[in-house]
Amino acid sequence: MLETFSKKLMQPQNGLLDRKIFNDSEIYRMEQEQIFARCWLFLGHESMIANPYDFITGYMGEEPVLITRDGKGKLHTFLNMCTHRGNMICRAEKGNNQSFMCTYHGWTFSIDGKLVGVPGFKEVYFEELDKAKWGLVEVAQMDSYKGLMFATFDSRAPSLIDYLGDQKYELDLSVDRREGGAEVIGGVQRWVMKANWKFAVDNFGGDDGHHMITHGSVRPVVIDGKRWFNAYAEQKDPNNRMNMGGGWITEVDSSGKPLNEMGYMLGKYEQEHQKELRERMGGNPALNTMRGTFVGSIFPNMSFSSLRFNFRIWLPKGPDKTEVWHYCIVDKKAPPEIKSMIRLHLTETFGPSGNLEQDDMNNWQNSTFTAKGIVAQRQPMTILAGLGHDKEVPVTGTKLRAIYIRWAEMMNAASWDNVSINKSR
Ligand code: FES
Ligand code: FE
User: Fold this and answer.
1) Which residue's alpha carbon is nearest to atom 2 within ligand 1?
2) Which of 107, 160, 283, 381 sees the fewest Cβ atoms within 10 Å?
3) pLDDT tens for residues 102-131?
4) Residues 168-214: pLDDT tens digits?
C-alpha cells in the first residue's frame, strides 16, 4: 500500500532500514494517519486526575487532547478543539473544573463533553442549533491498565489488553509492585529535541548496544549504586538472588566515596519490601529474564523504565522534531522521603538535566540530521546484530528488528486484520 519508502532499502526482517523514514515529510504525514490515528496511545496515569472534575491536557500524535474525570468518576478523552471554529478549549496543563468556555466566541462544554452554553442561542441561532450534535469530539476507545491511561481514535482497534499483549507483565514491574499501585509525582517534565521520534522509541525498546559507549562519560563520575543495594541485600539475606529494582546511580568524589546515601537508602527500601514484591510478582514471566527491572517501549511512542521509575511519551512534532514528556512514577505506599529521593535520583539521571539523557539525545539528533541527505538516503541503515540467531541469543538487533517490522506492518496495513496481534489474552 505504501510506496513512499523503498522496498529495496526497507527490509527490517533482513536488518535493513530506509534512512528516509527518519527524516522525510511525506513519511511523517503517513505515520500520523497509519500509526497515530489508529494505535493505542499513552495519556498519563489516573493518579494525575484522581478526583471528580480533574483534568489534564496532552497530545495523541499531533492532536491536542483534553483528558477529564467527570462528576461520576468516568474518564474521558476529547480533542482539545472547540466544535465551533476550532479554538483550543483548554490551555491549562491541569486543573479542576466543571466546564470549559472557549475564549473565541464563548461556547461552553461540560466536563463530560456536552455543549451546554452558546452565546446568542436565542437571538442569533433562533434556538435551532442542535446542541446535542456539537459536543466535544471524543476518542473512539479509552481504557486503563492498572492506572495507565490509553486511548485510540480507531473504533476498530483491538482491545487495550490485546494490544499490550505480554508487555503488560513488564508494565506490572513498574505499576503493581506494592498494594495500592503507583502514582505520578512532581508533574511532567517537557523538552524538545531535534530528533525523529523513532530513534528514541527504539533506543528504549531495544538498543542495548549503546550503553557502554554512549554513557561511557557518566561512568567516571558515578558508581553503579546496585553495589550498595546488593551489599545491603546480602547482609540481610545471603540467599536473596531476586533483585527487584535497584541499579541506583550515586555520585562519588575523586576517591570513589559516595557523596550521598541515596543509593543506599533506596536499596534499603527495595529490600524491606522484597517479600511483598515477590508475592505480587511471583507469577510474572517477565521476571525470569529481567530480574525485576525493565526498560522498554510500547509501540508507537511510549517508553518506560522500572529501573529508573519513569514513563515518557515521545510526541512527534515533525520529521526531525520530538517533544518529550517525562513522568516520575512511584509506589503509592512509599514513604514521602523515599518518593522524594526517587524523584531526585530520576532528575539526576533522566530528564533534561539527566546525565544519561543528554548522552542519548545528542546521538539521536545527529542520526536524524544525517538521514536527510540525498546521498545518505541511498545507503540503508543497518540493524544487523544477531541476524539469523534471534532464537539463540535475542540481542539488541532482534528487538530493533521487531520494532521496525511492526512499524512497517502498521504503515502498510489497510486494516487491523493485517496486523499481527493475538486476541483475547
Ligand atoms: Fe470556540 Fe467559536 S471557536 S466558540
Ligand atoms: Fe541511553
Assistant:
1) 105
2) 283
3) 999 999 999 999 999 999 999 999 999 999
4) 988 988 898 899 999 999 999 999 999 999 999 999 998 888 888 88
Residue nearest to atom 3 of ligand 1 (CA): 85
Does residue 117's CB lie within 6 angstroms of at least one atom of ligand 1? no
Mean pLDDT of 384-391: 88
Question: Residues for the chain: how many in total?
Answer: 425
| The three three-digit cell numbers of residue 22, written as one number | 527518519
User: Could you tell me the residue ranges of all domains in the chain?
Assistant: 7-22+379-425, 40-165, 170-295+302-370
Q: How far is the CA of 244 from the centre of ligand 2 (A)?
A: 21
Q: What CA–CA distance (Å, rounded) separates 278 from 331?
A: 15
CA 104, CA 92: separation in Å to the nearest integer? 16
pTM: 0.91
Residues 304/313, Cβ–Cβ less than 8 Å: no
User: CA 105, CA 107: separation in Å to the nearest integer?
Assistant: 6
C-alpha of residue 287 to centroid of ligand 2, in Å: 22
| Fold type of domain 170-295+302-370 | Naphthalene 1,2-dioxygenase Alpha Subunit; Chain A, domain 1 (3.90.380)
Q: From the CA of 120, how far away is ligand 1's center (Å)?
A: 13
Q: Show the cell assigned to 326.
A: 517525562
At how many degrees (to 10) do helices 262-272 and 336-349 cross?
A: 130
Say what the pLDDT of residue 309 is.
Answer: 82
Identity (one letter) of the amino acid at 214? Answer: T
Say yes or no: CB of residue 87 within 6 Å of ligand 1: yes
For 191-309, where are the alpha helices, taking DSSP H only? 197-206, 211-214, 226-236, 262-272, 274-281, 286-290
Q: Strand, helix or coil at 303? A: strand
How many helical (H) and strand (E) elements, i.e. helices and strands, does the chain have? Answer: 12, 19
* Separation between Cα atoms, residue 29 and residue 370, nearest integer Å: 20
Rounded to the nearest angstrom, the distance between the alpha carbon of 101 and the centre of ligand 1 is 9
DSSP code of residue 319: T
The 10s digit of each residue's pLDDT in 47-68 is: 999 999 999 999 999 999 999 9
User: CATH topology of 40-165 equal to that of 170-295+302-370?
Assistant: no
Model pLDDT for residues 319-361, shown as the tens digit of each residue: 999 999 999 999 999 999 999 988 988 888 888 888 888 889 9
- What is the spatial distance between Cα 88 and Cα 79, in angstroms, rounded to a whole number? 9
Query: Is the CB of 103 inside a 6 Å radius of any atom of ligand 1?
Result: no
